[in-house]
Amino acid sequence: MDSATMGEMVMAGFQKLGFIQFSGIEGVEYASGLNVVRMAGGPEHYNHNGDVHAALLFGLAETAAMGASISGIVDLLADTFIVARDGRIEYLARAKGEAGPFSATAELSPATIAETRANIRARTEIELEVPVIITDDTGKEVARAAFTAVIRPRRR
Fold first, then answer.
1. Is 129 helix (H, G, I), strand (E, B) or coil?
2. What pTM value is reported for the model?
3. Confidence bin at 53 (pLDDT 50/70/90)
4. Long-range contacts: 9-16, Cβ < 8 Å, 24+?
5. Among 27, 57, 67, 149, who pairs with 35 as Cys (CB 3.0-4.6 Å)?
6. How far apart are CA 63 and CA 18, in angstroms?
């Protein structure tokens, strides 16, 4: 399966979730080890200062991270259970509404993907930290985040 088809499949699954529908998160780029998602934002997403609400930026980052965590293992998902265990975010600049859309990029190295695949095949539980960078439409970083994806064998 090529990256574009895989990305469409992953985003189609995400689009079924109410939070994704509310926030307007959409897929931009998807490949093994990479997930880029975007959120345009509208008045319903802004706080009293006209900035994108922090919770929505956190959700955007989590969506990018979890997409990246499965990006190199889509063919192994039937045997795998994946969940976010935790996440943290550092807000670096205001996410002014007019500076959108905002993009979140999560990227994993080929070595991390290979190790993840080997652990899944060995039926070994792993925890994978997935870094994320959020930028505005000018490329300015507005936040950095990291999420821990727990990947374990599906119970038989």
1. strand
2. 0.89
3. very high
4. 9/74, 10/35, 10/67, 10/70, 10/71, 10/74, 11/37, 11/67, 14/63, 14/67
5. 67
6. 13
